[in-house]
User: Fold these one by one.
Assistant:
Number 1:
Amino acid sequence: QKEVEQDPGPLSVPEGAIVSLNCTYSNSAFQYFMWYRQYSRKGPELLMYTYSSGNKEDGRFTAQVDKSSKYISLFIRDSQPSDSATYLCASLSGSARQLTFGSGTQLTVLP
Amino acid sequence: GAVVSQHPSRVICKSGTSVKIECRSLDFQATTMFWYRQFPKQSLMLMATSNEGSKATYEQGVEKDKFLINHASLTLSTLTVTSAHPEDSSFYICSARPDRNEQFFGPGTRLTVL
C-alpha cells in the first residue's frame, strides 16, 4: 500500500463546476500537507500548504485536511479551462526530509 | 518569492556523452535540494536528496556513479548524467527547500538521448 493514495482520473468537468480532488494517506506521522499543480512539461507549482487538520482558502482554492480520517481534499470553485493540469497531493512528517507524493489526478476543464 | 530555476530547459545529446543540469534557488537559501525524475503521465520519482556541503543521499535503485550530484552552495545544485543512454531520456526536476517545510520546484529539464 502506498503511503499516499490518489485517484489518477482523468477527471473532466465543464467550466464553472466545483472540482473536488482527494487523497488518502496511511502514515499517522504526516503533519504537513501540500497540493501542487503541474502543467504538461512543466515543474510542479505549490498551490496550497497546510499544517495539521483544518481548512485553508486561497481565492478559488480550498484545501481541507481531516487527520482523523486521513483524508486530504482540494476544492476548486468556478473552475476555468486554465485549471486543466495534473494535481499532486503531498505529505510530510515532522521528522522526514522528503515529501511523499500521490500519483496525481489529471483534470480537464472543458470550455 | 521562492523561485527555483533550472538550466537548461531542454537538452538533446548523443549516447555516451555527459549532461549537466543546474538547479538554482533564486531568492532563498536552500539547505536541502532534491532531484526527481518523471516519465510521461507518471508521478515524480525521487532520485536523491542533497544537502549543501555533504554527499547526496540516493534512493534505492539510483546509480550514484551515473547520476552525480553536487550541492556546492546554498543556492546551487547540479545533476550530471554521465555516459547518457537513450533509457536516461526523461524529465528531470529539481526542488529546493528553505529552512521550513514548503518545497519549491524548478521548471524541469527535458533530456533526450539519441
Note: Chain A has a mean pLDDT of 92.
Number 2:
Amino acid sequence: ETGVTQSPTHLIKTRGQQVTLRCSSQSGHNTVSWYQQALGQGPQFIFQYYREEENGRGNFPPRFSGLQFPNYSSELNVNALELDDSALYLCASSPVSESGETQYFGPGTRLLVL
Amino acid sequence: KQEVTQIPAALSVPEGENLVLNCSFTDSAIYNLQWFRQDPGKGLTSLLLIQSSQREQTSGRLNASLDKSSGRSTLYIAASQPGDSATYLCAVKGGSYIPTFGRGTSLIVHP
C-alpha cells in the first residue's frame, strides 16, 4: 500500500506569481484535504474534495483553488501569491468523507514567497 | 467557532518519565478527536483517533482519553524515549467535518 506523496518538496516563488502543488492520495482513498501550516502553528484547513467535488472549505480566499482527478490525485493552486502564503502545505487522504475516518498525511510542500 | 488549545506549548523531560499532554476545545459537539505526531518540517502521523462515543484509546505506550462534556482530551505517554521527541498536535472534527487543530506541544526527551 503506497502512502500519500506530494510534489515538489520545496518551492520558492515571488509575490504575485501563481503556484501549483500536487498530491497523490493513498491507494483506495477518495477524499483529499489540503492544509496550510505556518511556522509554529497548527495546520489550517483549506478545503476538501470528495469524488472530484469540493465538499468543504475553510476560511481561505478564492485565489486558493483545487482539483481532484479520477485517479484521486489532486492539485492545490494559489494565484497572486502573497508573502503570508509562505508555509508548509499538507495534503491528507482518507477512505471516505465522513466524520469517523483517520486522515493520512503526506510529507508536505514547503513554499517560500519572496 | 471551535477553538483548540494545547498545554503546555513545550516540554523537556529526561528519558523514562511518564508524560501528560493536554488538549482543550470550546465546542463539545464533536465527531472525533485525533492526536498526531509531527517531526520537524515533516507531515503528520496519526497516533490515536477517538470517536465521540468513546472515552479512550490505547496504542502501545500511548493512551488518549476524551471527556466531551468538559471539552478536554489528554495524551498519556508512558516511559518516554528520545525517539518520542516531536510536536504533538490534537485535532477536533465537528459538525462541519472540518478539523480544527491546536498549535501543538513541542516535546524533547533527552537521554
Note: Residues 22 and 74 of chain B are 5 Å apart (CA to CA).
